[in-house]
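Quick question, first post here. What does this chain look like in 3D?
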Amino acid sequence: MQTLSTQTLARMIKIGKHLGKSDLLDLLMEANLWSKRIDMDVNRQEILRTALNGARDKAIEDDDTQAHQALLDFARALVEFDLHRELRNLVDDLAEALRSDGYELVDQETDELDRFGFQHKVKILPFDAGKAPLHEEMTALEHELTARGYAQALGHYQAALKHFSEQDHPSSNGQLRTAFEALIVNLAVDHTAYQDTGRANQGGSAIKDLYVKGGSGPAVTGQPLPEKDGGTLIQGVWDISHLNGSHPGLSDAQEARIRMQLVTGVMQFLLRHFPA
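> Answer (accepted):
Ran it through. C-alpha cells below.
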C-alpha cells in the first residue's frame, strides 16, 4: 500500500529529535511504533529512523494498514505535543510534506493551552478515500499512452509523477503541462487535419482543432468536441496548466496535487473520446 514518503518521515525526525528521550519513547508507544529492534543506547534520530522506517517498510511490503496508521498517529501526537515556539516552523514543513502524501493536517480549536501558549487538537485527514492522487487512473493512463505509442507524452507524464513523489511541485507542474501538450498534438494529428510542424509550443494551435467553437453538442466519439460539450473543459484545463508552472515558490503541495488530478482526468477524457 502507499504510505507516508521518506521526505515526510524526515520532517517528523527533525521535530522529534528535539524532544527528551523519555517523551519521545512515550509518543512512539502511544502510536504503537515501539519495537524490539529499537536500540535504547543510540541517539534520538536513530531511534526515530528505526521506528518510522520499520513501520513504512511493513506498510509497503506487507500491505500493513496498521503500520500506516501508526505513522499517521505519530505525526498527530508529535504536533499535539508541547513543542517549543521555535519548532512551530518545522510543523509547517511537516504539514506541507503531508499534503504531498495526500493528507491535510488540521489544527482544531481547544480551550486547553499548552505550556507555550498554543492550542492543539490535531487531526490528519486524507484528501480522498484512496489516500493517493488518482493512483489507479495514473497507471491506466500510462498504459494507454504506451499502447498508442505516444512516447513523448508518456515520458513527460512519468517525469511529472516522479517529481510529484519527490515533492518537487514546480518541476512536476512543468512536466505535466508538457505531457498534456504532447497528447493534444498527437490527438490533433491522428484525428483532425492538423499538421505537426515539429516545433515546440504547438499546443495552443493544436487544441483549436480538437473542438468546435460555438458547437452545442452532443459530442460524437472521434470527432472534434463541441465547445459546450467538452470543448470548454479541455480549453479551460489547458489555460490552467500554464499558471503556477515550473517556477519555484508558485505551487504548494495541495495546488500541485489538484493540478495532477485535473490534468490526469482530462487526458483520460481525451483518450476516451478520441479512441485508437
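The chain is about 60% helix and 5% strand.
The mean pLDDT is 86.
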